[in-house]
Amino acid sequence: MQTHILGYPRIGSNRELKKACEQYWTGKIEANDLLEVGKTITQNNWKLQQEAGIDLIPCNDFSFYDQVLDMTLTVGAIPERYQEIAFKKSELNLYFAMARGFQKDGLDITAMEMTKWFDTNYHYIVPEFQKNQEFTLFSHKIIKEFISAKQAGINAKPVIIGLLTYLLLGKEKEEGFDKLDLAQNLLPVYIQILKELENHGAEYIQFDEPFLALDLTEKAREVYQFIYAEIRKQFPKLKFIVATYFEGLKDNLLLATSLPIDVLHIDLVRCPEQLDETLDIIPNNLSLSLGIVDGRNIWKNDFQKSLNSIKTAVEKIGSERIFIAPSCSLLHSPFDLDSEKNEEILSHEIKQWMAFAKQKVTEIVNLKKLASENPDYNALQALAENKKAIENRKISKLIHSQDVKNRVDVTTEDDAKRNSPFNIRKEIQHDVLKLPLFPTTTIGSFPQTKEVRNWRAKFKKGELNAEQYDTLLKQETERTIRWQEEIGIDVLVHGEFERNDMVEYFGEQLSGFAFTQNGWVQSYGSRCVKPPVIFGDVHRPQPMTVYWSEFAQSLTQKWVKGMLTGPVTILQWSFVRDDQPRSTTCKQIALAIRDEVNDLEKAGIRIIQIDEPAIREGLPLRKSDWQNYLKWAVEAFRISASGAEDATQIHTHMCYSEFNDIIQNIADMDADVITIECSRSQMELLNAFADFKYPNEIGPGVYDIHSPRVPSKEEMVKLLKKAQAVIPAQQLWVNPDCGLKTRHWDETEKALIAMVEASREASKEFALQIL
C-alpha cells in the first residue's frame, strides 16, 4: 500500500508567496528574490511530506500564480497580443502580463480571462485557443522542478494537467472549430515533456483529469481513449496516475477504468458510493487511489469510517494495488493547524475537530499504518484520539440551537416572495430613487490601504481603543463619500473599511461560526482568503451593518447602498459543517440576512446589495444534479431579500460566471438589479441575458479590477455600446467588474473618473439617438 498527495498549498506557511509576488510587482524586489521564495516554499513542502512518510510526493504543483497558466506557458499557447512582451521581456514578466495585463513601456495589453476552478473558490486563467493553433514547448518549469526535487532526494511525482482537461478548460476565441480538434497538435508537446521527464528518471506521472468526473460528449470520450493510447504507446515503462476529483465517475467509469494507465484516483469524499462500483469492474492491471481524506474542508478524517473503506478495497483487489490519498489537491486547505495558538480566536474544543493540510498529510500516513497487519503504538494512539474527537463533535452542545431549527421549519413559500412583481416595483423605485439613465455605482469596497489595514491590526492588538478606531474609519468613510460625490457617481457606497473580508466580516457577527488566525487559502494569484468555519446552527444576535450604512447615508443627499453578502456565497466561501445538508445551513444564513435587510430598511437605506458571486460556482458538476441545488440556492437568496418593501431596490452581484445554462434561475432570483463581470469577456456574457430577454436591470462591468491597468474612457464607451446592442439602454447600469478592495487609490481614481465620463457620454449619445 502506498501514500501520495495530489498537490500541496503553495502560498507558504506565512503567505510568503503572496508578499513576495506583490513586492515584485511593485518593484521592491528583483526576479531572483521572488524565484528564491518560490524555491524555499517548494522545498519546505517536499521536506514536510518526506518527513511525514509520504511515498510519492508531488512536484510541479507549485505555481507563482496559477497552475493552468503554467501549463499555457509550458505549451506555448501565448495569445498574439503578448508576442511583443514575449520577445522583449523575461518569461516571468510575460507570465504575469498574461495573468494581470500590462500597461507600461508604451504597451497596453489586457489580461487573459479568469474563471472559477470547477466548483471551488479558486480562480484559474482561461487558455485561449485559435483554429489550427500550433503548440511548442516554451517553458521548462515542469522539468526543472522535477530535477530540483531529485537533487533534494525527493521521490517526486510530476503533476501535469491532463491534455483533455487542459483543452476543455480553455475557450475558442474564434468561431468554426472545436477546441478538442487541437488534441492532435498538442499531443507532441506532451510527449516531449514526458520524454524529458523519463530521461531524468521520473517513474510516476500524475495527470489531473477532473473532467472525467463531469458530463462528457462522445467526441471527448473518443479523444480521451486516443490520447492515452498514444501516450502509452510512446511510454510503456512510465507509470501513469490519472486523478479525478470533485465528483464521481458515474457514466464515465468504464471509460476511466479502460484507459491504459497504472493508477486511477477517485474522490471518495464527494462520491463515496463509487468505491463499490469501481471495485466491481476494475481490471487486474489497474491500481486504485482512494481519495479518502477531504482535501477541501477542515474537519478531521473519521479514521474508522476510512478504514472500513480501505478494508473493502483491500479484500477485493489486495493491498499492493491500493494508494491512499486526499480527495483532491490540498491547495484548497489551510496550511497548518499548529499555527492556531490563540484560544480566544479558535477554542480548543472546536480546534480538536479540525485538520489543515499538514495534519491531513499525517492522517494519510496514519491510515496506511492502521490498515496494515501490525499498526505501531503511535498509530493506535492516533486512532484512539481520533475516535474521541469524532465522538466529542457529535455530542457537543456548541453545535445545536432549537430556536434556529424551529425557525427554519416554519419558513413558507411566501417568505421567498416580494410583495409585488418586478414591473410594479420598478416604477415605484424609479419614482423614489430618481436615478438618471446609465446610473453609475461601484460594487462595494474601496481600496483597503496599508493605513487601513494597520488600523485594524492595531485595534486587534489593543494599540487603538474602540473610539480611536471608530474615528479613523469614519474619517476614511467620509473621505470616500465626498470623493464619490465630487466625481459624480450616482449611487454611492461607504467603502467597507471596517471589513476584513466579505464573508469573514459577517461570520464574525453570526452565531455558529468559528475563525482562525492563519487559515489562509489561495483564491487567485496573490489573493488569499481566510474562510470562516461554520460548525453549528447559524443565527444573527444583533444588526451587523446598520451602524456604518446609517453613518454613511447621513453624510450625503445621494443614495448609499447597504452592502451584504448573500447566503449562498457565505456558505460556499466558508468551511461548512458536514453533519447536516448544506441546504439547511444555507436557509439558516438566509434568515439571518433577511433580518439585516429589514433593519437596514428601518434605518432609511433604500438600495441594498446582497452579493451572490458564488451562486454559479456552487452548481453541482453534473447537470442531472443542478435543479435540486438551484431550487434551494435561489430560494435562500429570495428568503434573504423578500422581506424588503417594493420601494427598496435589491441589487445582487455575480462575477466570473457563465450564465447561459442557468439564466432562468438567475431571473428567478428576482433581484431588481444584477451586476456582473463582463470586461475580460468583452461583454460576451451579456448574450445570455439578451437571448433570454432578461427583464430586470443589469450592470455589466466595464473595467477589470483584477488587473492594475487603467482603462480609458473610450474603451469603456466601446464596451457600453456593445452592451446597448443587446440590452435596452433603460435597463443598463455602469459599474466596475467587482469590488475595489485590492486596488490602489491612484488606479481607482483614474478608472472611476473615466467610468463616470463614459456613462455621461453614452447617455448623451442615447439622447441624440432618440431625438
Automatic annotation (TrEMBL):
Binding note for cofactor: Binds 2 Zn(2+) ions per subunit.
Cofactor(s) listed: Zn(2+)
Binding sites annotated in the UniProt record for L-methionine: 443-445, 496, 611
Catalytic reaction equation(s): 5-methyltetrahydropteroyltri-L-glutamate + L-homocysteine = tetrahydropteroyltri-L-glutamate + L-methionine
Pfam families given in the database record: Meth_synt_1 (PF08267), Meth_synt_2 (PF01717)
Record carries keyword Ubl conjugation: no
Any single GO BP term: methylation
Domain of life, per lineage: Bacteria
Chain sites annotated for binding Zn(2+) 1: 653, 655, 668, 677, 738
Annotated L-homocysteine binding sites: 443-445, 496, 611
Keyword terms of this UniProt record: Amino-acid biosynthesis, Metal-binding, Methionine biosynthesis, Methyltransferase, Repeat, Transferase, Zinc
Bilayer-spanning residue ranges: none
Residues forming the catalytic site: 706 (proton donor)
Enzyme nomenclature, EC number: 2.1.1.14
Primary enzyme class: transferase
Sequence ranges assigned to domain Cobalamin-independent methionine synthase MetE N-terminal in this UniProt record: 3-316
Domain Cobalamin-independent methionine synthase MetE C-terminal/archaeal: 438-760
Protein name: 5-methyltetrahydropteroyltriglutamate--homocysteine methyltransferase
Organism name: Chryseobacterium arachidis
Gene that produces this protein: metE
